[in-house]
Design a protein that fits this description.
Blueprint: H1 6-27, E1 30-38, H2 47-54, E2 61-67, H3 72-80, E3 84-87, E4 99-104, E5 109-116, E6 124-133, E7 136-144, H4 154-162, E8 171-176, H5 184-191, E9 194-196, H6 197-201, E10 224-229, E11 235-241, E12 254-260
């Protein structure tokens, strides 16, 4: 019987280990770090101060609302080395400088703004863009809507009209919803297949709030949220409400890290 040289066996084992590592690497999820922040038209902080606040979170994409027009979002981006931005044209309730914007570390594709119909203050809207992380496309919406417990509110329109027509396999919706998790308005959104990151993170929200940061005695609970479509098989692995010693807006910023599978199986769930 011919003896196989030890060096050959070692090389073979090394090749097997490398191949296995590459195989597992292919299955590693795409990690996206996301934030949402209602900045109250930058009344209480400069864009540079807001950028400095976000630095430790190493974000990929941020959805701002009540953001000023012009180069405000780009100025935040300069601090964070995030060079891609999009600013909507519809100011919430026709108030001055209350736009929805997107700031991204990754190039933005298919940018646009969708008016959201419904009872409450109008106009309301969401801005939209597609980004590619590690070559995987993810559709991102940044919105600011009116709170409503009725089935004719902005969240209902978003769930039944906008997201029902969305073809992307991976979707994130983030912003100021003016409703708490469990309210009828957001139940419509969850019923459409969107999942709030809070549920993955098992954060107890009943004693927390995102508004009003300046007047806790007037707080109304957690009304800012980040959702993703459950059919993607994604999961939030980290995130929280960002608590600041000195508030930079009447809202608190929120963030989440979401793990998206690289492949979506035939059952609609990630592999």
């Amino acid at each position: 019987m011919k003896t196989i040289p030890k060096c050959y066996l070692l090389e073979t084992l090394l090749l097997i280990c490398v191949s296995a590592s590459l195989c597992f690497a292919d299955k590693d999820p795409v990690m996206l770090r996301v934030a949402a922040y209602n900045v109250e038209f930058s009344k209480s902080a400069t864009p540079e101060q807001i950028g400095e606040m976000f630095k430790p979170f190493k974000l990929d994409i941020i959805g701002f609302n009540e953001a000023p027009d012009g180069d405000w979002t780009k100025r935040v981006g300069r601090v964070l080395s995030m060079g891609h931005s999009y600013v909507g044209k519809i100011s919430s309730a026709n108030h001055k400088d209350k736009y929805k914007t997107i700031l991204s570390r990754l190039p933005l594709e298919e940018t646009g703004e969708i008016p959201l119909k419904g009872v409450g203050w109008n106009p309301a809207s969401a801005v939209k863009a597609v980004i590619r992380k590690d070559g995987i496309p993810i559709t991102f919406y940044s919105l600011h809507i009116c709170g409503s417990k009725k089935d004719k509110g902005h969240a209902y329109y978003l769930a039944t009209e906008v997201l029902q027509k969305e073809n992307s396999e991976r979707v994130i919706v983030a912003g100021d919803f003016n409703n708490r998790i469990g309210d009828d308005s957001l139940n419509f959104l969850e019923g459409s297949g969107m999942r709030p990151t809070w549920k993955d993170l098992k954060i107890e929200l009943s004693q927390q709030f995102t508004y009003n940061a300046f007047a806790p005695e007037k707080q109304v609970g957690v009304i800012d949220h980040i959702f993703y479509n459950a059919s993607s098989g994604a999961k939030a692995t980290d995130g929280d409400i960002i608590e600041l010693k000195k508030p930079l807006s009447d809202h608190k910023p929120i963030w989440a890290e979401i793990a998206f599978p690289r492949e979506i199986g035939p059952d609609g769930l990630g592999n």
